[in-house]
Amino acid sequence: MDPSKWPARAVLPVAVPGLKYIFATILFTGMLFYFGWTAPAWAFLGITCFVCWFFRDPDRKGPDGEKDFLAPADGRVIVVDRMEESEYLDVPCQKVSIFMNVFNVHVNRIPFDGVVQGVKYNPGKFINASFDKASIHNERNALIITTEKDKTFAVVQIAGLIARRIVNCVKEGERITRGERYGMIQFGSRLDLYLPTDFEVRVKPGDKTQAGVTLIGYMN
Fold it and tell me: Catalytic residue positions?
């Protein structure tokens, strides 16, 4: 998907990747009512409302301090840990994981300014995203990003038990800006952050996050 098709400010209050699902459910529900199949029509109207609600895409504005590193996803922090190395950074790093359930806004946002040095997609399984092994075995898409001060971090979208579609709008070599929309994971998922060892983490397991609003910590 071309990033130019997902504007900085939403024209509609729903995510661009969800429009095809919304239009499909509206069309099918309308057909059921047209042919007089009232009971299933009302049932699909409920499904249509849920799909519209799931793909909601509210405008957000968070803190804008020079070192502020913002949450890339709505959800709940489930992991804050240190690692000797990872699949994306071959040096010691810190890991922060956010679990998104089906009721969260699923639009992902850039957490910090930088340049995309690499985009790494891995096909995989669809284990429950709340399990830590999902970071290794599930379908996932990673952005490796370098800041102006040569700090490198990774943002990894991970498909979950229900989620079967990862949307990423940015490409290698692209300059990205904190807070802008860059993708989503459809119908429940997880997002992992791999951060430098001197990154000052300000969240803990159990904390709730809002993409583009919640402060994850400071990029030193």
Answer: 189
What are φ and ψ of residue 97, in 5° steps?
-115, 140
**Domain residues for 41?**
3-54
In a domain, 210, yes or no: yes
Neighbours of 220 (CB within 10 A): 12
Strands (E) in 139-188, as ranges, are 140-146, 152-159, 166-168, 175-176, 181-185
Residues 114 and 72 in one domain: yes
Q: Is the residue at 63 inside a domain?
A: no
Secondary structure element (H or E) that encloses residue 96, with its range: strand 93-100
For 101-202, where are the E strands, in sequence order? 107-109, 114-122, 140-146, 152-159, 166-168, 175-176, 181-185, 189-195, 200-201
pTM of the model as a whole: 0.86
Same domain, residue pair 14 and 40: yes
Q: With residue 209 as reference, give the H or E element that holds it.
A: strand 208-209
Q: Nearest to residue 154, comparing CAs of 163, 162, 145? A: 145
Contacts of residue 3, Cβ cutoff 8 Å, sequence gap at least 6 = 169, 170, 171, 174, 182
What's phi and psi for 204, nearest 5 deg? -140, 165
Q: Express each pLDDT in 32-75 by its tens digit.
A: 999 999 999 999 999 999 888 888 998 888 898 999 999 999 99
CB 96 within 8 A of CB 193: yes
Q: Using one digit for the tens of pLDDT, what is the confidence trace for 111-127?
A: 999 999 999 998 866 55
Tokens of 126: 């669809």
